[in-house]
Amino acid sequence: MNLEKMNIGAMIKYHRQLRNMTQSELCNGICSVTHLSKFENYNKEVNQETIMLLLDRLGISLDSIQKASESIAADLSDLLDAVLSYDKIRAEECYQRVQEQREYITFSNYIARYHLYLYRYFLLINDFSNAEKEQETIRQIANSFAAQEKELYEYLHAIFLIIKGEYKPSLDILLKVEANDLLPSPWKAELYYFIAFDFGSLKDSSSCVAYGLKALEEYSKSFNYLRILHTQFLLGIAYTDLGLYDNAEEQYRYIFKNMNLLNAKELSSAMYNNYALLLEKTGKMEEAFKFYLYSMEHAKNDIEHLMSLCSYTELLITQGKKEEALRNISKILRETKTSALRKQQLIFRHYQYLLKDQEEKAMSYLEEEVLPYLEKFFFIEDYNKFALSLAKYFSTKDTDKALFYYKKIAER
Fold it and tell me: Which residues form the HTH cro/C1-type domain (predicted)?
């Protein structure tokens, strides 16, 4: 990047005000106040000699500006590469380098890219407070964005919605972004990955596989091995949901083989949990119990541990281990009361009523609390599972209600 990419006029104004200098004091003997004012506020063309004299009076080296301007684009590019590679350690190093040049970036034509990349970086490291600050900054300057930058902001907003668990709104945005085809090419693999993720979260496993394979192809082109691993994990879950157990097993074999090599231990808990589900669906119950326990042991936070405990407890219920299941449910209900796991709170309250032989209360709670929540947030598979329970329950008690729930399942 060369000097014309820098708004030197705005930079001079900033440093003049920082030093409490008037325009007259700065331009005395160099140029007129009128000329300086136009230069500061409108970046009016000024000859190189005048710029050097103004910078010299401010104690700023033109050489330092030129060196900084030449490295900004490279540093931002490095930050993006680290973020898209999911390399958090390198991303932190790149972020620090970029921040060292923040003052210069403020007066460059890369200001939009800077805030967009920082937004994505904060989402990567789960720093939601700073992500929201960047989001607000971007809103304030978005009117000056080019079409591609506006599209990138929409895309990043969709990622934030995923983190909040709002999969359907996120998917709607991402599919529009794909259709518009304005997203810069380095982001395409991640776009396909997050579309697959949303489809998987909404239990449209066929679409999840379709986009997961597209993401896998793109990540393979750039040798992005860690993101390949993430994508294969996503595919393993989707194949399991589709009953394609051999395909799912193949994905998990790759993950087991490469997880330690790629320093992907943060995947351990979720991977063991979902592999246990595959074992459960293929009738290997004792193995499934073992891997659910592995998942709890490798949980890196309370939420991961709770999710694994929920999966483990559902298996206990299906295997008729009532007493242990009830003990776990008490813990689940206690620990999800103030967490984001509202769905688990509702479902396990229903299970608690059932295991305590309070069927009428369990079904009433299912109808009035659980199903409306599942429907509102598009948990389609869970909705169908529990709607079927209600349909069967009402089949001998209220034929109209039974038919209503069978119809709701068919619509999905």
Answer: 12-65
264/59 Cα distance (integer angstroms): 48
What secondary structure does DSSP assign to 288-323, as a single string? HHHHHHHHHHT-SSHHHHHHHHHHHHHHHHHTT-HH
pLDDT of the residue at 362: 97
Q: Provide the 10 A C-beta neighbour count for residue 104.
A: 18
Distance CA 252, CA 397 (A): 45
Supply the pTM of this predicted model: 0.77
Same fold, 3-60 and 146-251: no
Q: How far apart are CA 351 and CA 112, in angstroms?
A: 50
- What residues have CB less than 8 Å from 235, skipping those under 6 apart? 208, 209, 212, 213, 216, 247, 248, 251
d(CA 405, CA 386): 10
Q: Where are the alpha helices (DSSP H) in 31-110?
A: 33-42, 48-58, 62-84, 88-100, 102-106
Assign a CATH topology to domain 146-251: 1.25.40
Provide the CATH number for the domain formed by 3-60 in this structure.
Answer: 1.10.260.40
Range scoring the smallest mean pLDDT among 36-40, 161-165, 262-266, 301-305? 262-266
Ordered alpha helix ranges (H), 181-265: 188-201, 205-221, 225-242, 245-258
- pLDDT tens digits, one per residue of 90-127: 999 999 999 988 877 877 778 888 999 999 999 999 99
pLDDT digits (tens, 9 = 90+) for 198-217: 999 988 999 999 999 999 99
What backbone phi and psi angles, to 5 degrees, belong to 150? -65, -40
**Higher model confidence: residue 3 or residue 184?**
184
Query: Which tokens hold the place of 269?
Result: 């808990």
Q: Are 277 and 311 in contact (CB under 8 A)?
A: yes
| Mean pLDDT across 149-174 | 94
Per-domain residue ranges for the chain? 3-60, 146-251, 264-345, 358-412
